[in-house]
Specification:
Layout lengths: L2 E8 L4 H14 L3 E8 L7 E9 L12 E6 L2 H6 L4 E10 L6 H4 L9 H8 L3 E4 L1 H8 L5 H13 L3 H11 L5 H12 L2
Parallel strand pairs: 1-4, 4-5, 5-6
Antiparallel strand pairs: 1-3, 2-3
Length: about 190
Amino acid sequence: MDINILIVGVGGQGTLLASRILGSLASLQGKDCKLSEVHGMSQRGGSVVTHVRIADSVNSPIIAEGEADIVLAFELLEGFRWRHFVKKEGYIITNTQKIWPMPVIIGSVDYPEDLIAKMQSESKNVIAFDALKLALKAGTTRAVNTVMIGKTAKMLGYDKELVLQALEMSVKPSFIEMNKVAFELGYNS
């Protein structure tokens, strides 16, 4: 299956690891995969965007606006900001977690309200869930990325064992068991 996934979040949420897991999965499936990462002050909690394109042959790593099958948002406002990349029949899968950007922290603007409803008014396929709560259940906030991969894998009908194998290829050995738990929680949510 050819698929374009735009992964969005803020620095420290593991968007880059998630893209590497998907890249490993593509390799295990015998598919070509191109990744492109954009870091916007990511070490300071800024936006991080990763383009993941999987197909038999991929020429360009960049997903055009309106061409993403999935916008996979690790933070709610980031999902809203990048919603225009999802194609008409595509999906926005978003964590409901809110991480305040600097303008909100310093009080110059308010965190926008009703973002899920606003996304739903523009796209019929919005899946919003509390991935942070599931990551905490797995033992760490840093597993939000793996929870989100689990949810996406289930939705796409990916072979669970193959995704777990890709996870093992991508995650440091000391974190594999915790990430497997997080994946399962996302997959079964």
